[in-house]
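re: the backbone from monday

yeah here it is again, tokenized this time
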């Protein structure tokens, strides 16, 4: 196999992977590749064409907005010595450009070959025709088709008047003329061809099937997706914004949203775009299993926003149940379970809902901070007296926990009004430390405050607020050793033990 043949084969494989079957097709004849390329020209937004009958200068110029144009067709034959020596032999065909304009495009393709001689050229030609044709022909904002429209009008009138079918040869209309009388212009490039169709539709682009043609056009376009270009049939389009994205990217985007349960208002990924993905679009992009989850989650989210819907509390049921406003009871039509819409327990009539001890703190906080309307709802559910009693008891418990300690022996709650941190239980007379709760010996309770090993060392009066006019250092800061003097503790019965105070 020659080097050229190998390069041709590689180029064919590459084009097959880039374009769909409608854009690129080929067959082999006499050891030569014969290819067909269809370039769908990329039109800017708000593009339009203008027309008028050139025979009537007084007529105004009409304009029609368009979103796409028929493709430019390139029929090629690859010589055996392509690409090393010879360029492809080609014919350029269009239904909306004149022969003169097509000749300019043919010369441009020749120039591109000269600039890239020895290299594969088909992709370069295709890219130019799709993306640069309008700029090259200076028709970037609109397309004038006066000659084509005049041609159409002349043909229509001739057909109606004479009943003869016109023959179309390039830009000329010949009615029952002798073929020998035809003259070819010497400047005509034989590689271009203009296809005309006899039609009585004034504006074929505005007729029915616009949506199908637009969808087909999008599928055939090359869509720029981040860093790579992908064909339109690998992309999806949001409506009504018409932003186009790679299907693979949107699938990942949808998959994350569905798995997170965030299925409501899945918006177009374009910044600040408010268009949303439709259920049909989601169904086309994700797997059947993932769509089932999306559908179920979306239904659940929608029902959650409906104030007259409550779910059956039975774990094996969970059926959505409709209830009347201000009605405390709901009855599940699936399992016939009648339950309270507030606490989800068996319906208990006018008796207030019961609450768990673990919910007390949360309920009290919610009730105290709730606006009047919410308080009324809570009172309807739990009862006003029950809520008020709960608030009072909870506040009392908070005060007791903050301002009292429990006896280490009998667990009685003890409040400290004043004095040192050595405490005696009012119920069982047990001595204990107010600071750490340690049980103290009844005969020498102050040893706990004077021992260097104790964590409350020298903290007998820690935290005690002196009375007005009392000096902290003179009246409170004295050793706990003094308080145990002359006690029954053996270490104080030593005759050599002396305590001196400076009075």
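seq for it, each position gets an aa:
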């Amino acid at each position: 196999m020659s080097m050229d043949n190998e390069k041709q084969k590689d180029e064919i494989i590459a084009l097959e992977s880039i374009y769909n079957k409608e854009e690129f097709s080929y067959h082999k004849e006499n050891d030569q590749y014969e290819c067909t390329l269809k370039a769908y020209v990329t039109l800017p937004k708000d593009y339009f064409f203008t027309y008028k009958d050139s025979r009537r200068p007084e007529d105004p110029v009409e304009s029609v907005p368009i979103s796409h144009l028929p493709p430019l067709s390139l029929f090629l034959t690859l010589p055996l010595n392509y690409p090393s020596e010879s360029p492809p032999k080609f014919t350029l065909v269009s239904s909306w450009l004149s022969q003169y304009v097509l000749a300019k495009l043919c010369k441009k393709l020749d120039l591109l070959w000269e600039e890239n001689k020895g290299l594969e050229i088909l992709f370069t030609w295709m890219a130019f025709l799709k993306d640069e044709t309008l700029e090259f022909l200076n028709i970037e904002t609109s397309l004038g088709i006066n000659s084509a429209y005049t041609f159409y009008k002349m043909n229509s009138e001739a057909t109606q008047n004479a009943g003869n079918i016109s023959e179309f040869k390039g830009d000329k209309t010949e009615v029952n003329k002798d073929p020998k009388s035809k003259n070819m212009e010497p400047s005509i490039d034989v590689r271009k061809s203009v296809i005309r169709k006899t039609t009585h539709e004034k504006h074929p682009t505005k007729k029915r099937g616009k949506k199908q043609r637009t969808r087909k056009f999008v599928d055939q376009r090359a869509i720029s997706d981040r860093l790579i270009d992908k064909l339109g049939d690998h992309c999806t389009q949001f409506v009504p914004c018409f932003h186009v994205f790679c299907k693979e990217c949107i699938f990942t985007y949808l998959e994350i949203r569905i798995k997170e349960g965030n299925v409501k208002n899945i918006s177009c990924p374009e910044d600040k775009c408010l268009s949303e993905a439709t259920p049909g679009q989601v169904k086309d992009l994700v797997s059947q299993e993932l769509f089932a989850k999306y559908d179920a989650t979306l239904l659940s989210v929608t029902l959650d926003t409906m104030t007259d819907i409550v779910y059956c509390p039975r774990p094996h049921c969970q059926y959505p149940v409709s209830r009347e406003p201000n009605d405390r009871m709901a009855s599940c039509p699936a399992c016939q379970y009648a339950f309270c819409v507030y606490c989800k327990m068996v319906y208990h009539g006018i008796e207030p809902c019961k609450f768990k001890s673990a919910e007390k703190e949360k309920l009290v906080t919610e009730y105290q901070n709730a606006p009047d309307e919410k308080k009324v709802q809570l009172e309807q559910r739990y009862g006003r007296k029950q809520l008020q009693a709960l608030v009072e008891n909870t506040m009392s418990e908070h005060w007791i926990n903050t301002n009292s300690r429990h006896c280490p022996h009998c667990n009685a709650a003890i409040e400290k009004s004043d004095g040192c941190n050595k405490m005696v239980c009012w119920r069982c007379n047990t001595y204990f430390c107010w600071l750490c709760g340690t049980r103290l010996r009844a005969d020498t309770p102050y040893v706990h405050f004077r021992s260097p090993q104790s964590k409350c060392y020298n903290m007998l009066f820690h935290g005690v607020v002196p009375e007005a006019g009392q000096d902290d250092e003179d009246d409170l800061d004295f050793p706990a050793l003094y308080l145990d003097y002359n006690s029954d503790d053996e270490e104080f019965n030593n005759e050599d033990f002396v305590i001196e105070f400076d009075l």
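Residues 384-403 form the longest helix (20 residues). The first strand starts at residue 24 and ends at 29.
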